[in-house]
Amino acid sequence: MSLIDSARSLLLLIDFQARLMPAIHEAEAALRNAGRLLEAAGMLDVPSLLTEQNPKGLGPTVGQLPVGDAPVVAKQSFGACGKEGFADRIPANAQVIVAGWEAHVCVLQTVLGLLETGHQVHVVRDAIGSRQPESKETAIRRMERHGAEIVTTEMVLFEWLRTAAHPRFREVAALIR
């Protein structure tokens, strides 16, 4: 496994929806880190993709995320790979950077689906959440056992930058201060 490469990355934000938020343990922290990832992705030309689970029932993506014009895929299947056409949105050689709710359901099933189809997946530990901390930790261990790399927001940002000489270094570094 190599460093995360901004030129090969796709940021995938799973089900950061308003009606889920009150139930998620430490939701604010995960949401803050997802926002950092999304802002940095915009600065570094990393494409982003969002999903919404049953948006009619769970509502839209929370307004705190700077979504911009990133595409949003509505789904009924817990794993996004179960949504027809979803896999076509993921480039074959992409390093998929994953954040989202709920770690042990939609995030887990999406990650396992991506791994099954041969994608390199990085799960951002501090940008995922579940209702119960045990569910999140169990999901992280399972995803890692199946081949996902477990990373943090700062790891992703600094691997995307690679060097303090990067022209956007100061802007991206300011996101984590």
Polypeptide structure, described:
Helix 3 links the parallel strand 4 and strand 5. The protein is of the alpha/beta class and 177 residues long. Helix content is 36%, strand content 20%. Strands 3-2-1-4-5-6 form a 6-stranded parallel β-sheet. It has a single domain, classed as Rossmann fold. Helix 3 (103-116) packs parallel to helix 4 (133-145).
Key phrases:
globular; six-stranded parallel β-sheet; Isochorismatase-like_dom; 177 residues; Nicotinamidase-related amidase; Isochorismatase-like_sf; alpha/beta; 20% strand; 6 strands; Rossmann fold
SSE arrangement:
Elements: E1 9-14, H1 27-43, E2 48-53, H2 55-58, E3 72-75, E4 95-101, H3 103-116, E5 120-129, H4 133-145, E6 149-151, H5 153-161, H6 169-174
Parallel strand pairs: 1-2, 1-4, 2-3, 4-5, 5-6
